[in-house]
Design a protein that fits this description.
- The chain has 262 residues and is mostly helical.
- It is built from nine helices and no strands.
- Helix 2 packs across helix 6, helix 3 packs antiparallel against helix 4 and helix 4 packs antiparallel against helix 5.
- The longest helix has 27 residues.
- The two termini are 31 Å apart.
Length: 262
């Protein structure tokens, strides 16, 4: 089988990732403020939902560039619009959903409709002839409809529709798994992009552990924490660089969804 030639990661993609550095820092703040010495289960559930919501947007943009992006004007403009919306999205991440309901979900809706236009007009293939294109657009259409309907209804009931929209956008490709063609995926590029989001997450971890590194340099707690973080990153690096075949023909879904869990 023909070896896959890795698609180059664009500088604009890396610039786009910088926004998610900020988004991830905002997400981690959701679980940094215990109530009466502990965090209620509701906060953890909200944290997981927001992680899924934000990362599925990042994944759709990454998948578009991976499968269909050709560095044309539509790709550049689409990515810039996604960046603009992602800044508002990230800035409205908190545990008080009522306060930022409209701003957050309007940003998500703008990003979603922008992705729909990118998939429709940025692809070199025709919608009716490409099952991959159809699958992603169906998922994004459903997410967009639920987001807009939730915004129209308002926070009290609309929040459930908006959450459902994000979850459907995340899970729908799994439901339609078999329609996607492995040969359309540039797996080396996808792995590189996924690795970058893990590095961003690890960077956020390093930002949040320095307060343990006080006092004696041989503090057992500091050593254990440092070794734990280093071990996690080391195991991930070993799995990606030594055991993962970067040039296989695959839909890439296992890699994408396991990275969200990580």
């Amino acid at each position: 089988m023909k070896k896959i030639v890795a698609k180059q990661v664009l500088m604009l993609e890396l610039f786009y990732d910088l926004i998610f550095v900020y988004a991830i820092s905002r997400i981690t703040m959701m679980i940094h403020h215990p109530i009466d010495g502990s965090l209620p289960p509701r906060i953890y559930i909200e944290f997981i939902i927001v992680v899924i919501f934000v990362l599925q947007i990042w994944l759709y943009q990454t998948v578009y560039i991976n499968r269909f992006g050709t560095s044309r004007a539509v790709d550049t403009v689409g990515l810039l619009i996604s960046m603009f919306a992602a800044i508002y999205l990230a800035n409205n991440i908190n545990t008080e959903w009522r306060l930022t309901f409209h701003a957050f979900n309007l940003s998500a809706a703008l990003t979603t409709i922008n992705l729909i236009f990118q998939y429709l007009f940025g692809s070199s293939t025709h919608f009716k002839r490409d099952h991959d294109l159809q699958g992603f657009i169906i998922a994004l259409d459903l997410e967009f409809i639920l987001l807009v309907t939730g915004l129209i209804i308002g926070y009290q009931y609309g929040v459930y529709l908006c959450v459902a929209g994000g979850l459907i956008g995340f899970l729908m490709p799994l439901v339609m798994y078999r329609i996607f063609r492995p040969e359309q995926v540039n797996f080396p590029h996808l792995v590189e992009r996924l690795s970058l989001i893990i590095i961003i997450t690890c960077g956020e971890t390093l930002v949040n552990i320095p307060h343990y590194f006080k006092g004696a340099i041989y503090s057992p707690l500091a050593i254990v924490i440092f070794l734990g973080v280093a071990a996690l990153f080391g195991v991930y690096t070993l799995l990606v660089e030594r055991f993962l075949n970067h040039h296989q023909h695959t839909r890439g879904f296992i890699a994408m969804y396991t990275h969200v869990v990580k």
